[in-house]
């Protein structure tokens, strides 16, 4: 019994030490990714989180395409929340957190992950995101003016295209003016409000159509 108790204490101490080491590595990712990649929002509380897991959202990126690019570079990461990772529906967890459903990357460091692994990931990520953004770049948005609002017709286009088109035209209206984005992609219900939060614009709400109304603040 004494030997078993001593062994259990040793295992717990080793697990605690490994958890601390992984937390330090994820903090490195959390801190440096926004500096290396423009248009990134790190998700979740930096303290009240599991060691070894960090999630961030990249604007104007298709999550699955980015995952494939990172996989080709030797990194197996995930998109969305773990509870909906096997489905194609927008994550209710991410919706509750107010973050993007598309362009969302969840990094889970395995036991034994090294500083070199993290540094290589940080070196590969900027180029992978830039490449996906270049491939995905939306064409000139189709717009009209109705009821004193600029209307962006993104019907039939999958996210993040509606968000990309919104970002392209918001500078065309004066501060205080409104934009109505028409989109029938279910993910737009999550991604457009999240984009507004990340870009300090006002999300007014959803209308029938389906349509999403945004007011330019900055």
Describe this structure in words.
The protein has six helices and eight strands; from the N terminus they run H-E-E-H-H-E-H-E-E-H-E-H-E-E. It has helices spanning 2-36, 63-72, 92-97, 115-136, 161-169, 188-198, and strands at 40-43, 53-58, 104-108, 143-146, 149-153, 178-182, 202-207, 211-215. 43% of the residues lie in helices and 18% in strands. A hairpin with a 3-residue loop joins strand 7 and strand 8 (211-215). The strands form two sheets. The protein has a five-stranded mixed beta sheet with strand order 4-5-6-8-7, with helices on one face. Strands 1-2-3 form a three-stranded antiparallel beta sheet. Helix 1 (2-36) packs parallel to helix 4 (115-136) and helix 2 packs across helix 4 (115-136). The model is unreliable at 81-90 (pLDDT under 50). The chain is an alpha+beta fold. 36% of the residues are buried. It is elongated and about 75 Å long.
User: Looking at the structure, what is the overall shape?
Assistant: elongated
How large, in whole angstroms, is the Cα Rg? 20 Å
Strand order of the largest sheet: 4-5-6-8-7
- Regarding quaternary structure, how should these chains be classified? single chain
The fraction of residues in strands falls at: 15-25%
Low-pLDDT runs: 81-90
Chain-averaged pLDDT: 84
Describe the biggest sheet? 5 strands, mixed
Euclidean distance between termini CA atoms: 67 Å
Query: How many beta-strand segments?
Result: 8
Tally of individual helices: 6
- Structural category is alpha+beta
Helix-strand pattern, N to C? HEEHHEHEEHEHEE
What's the helical proportion of residues? 40-55%
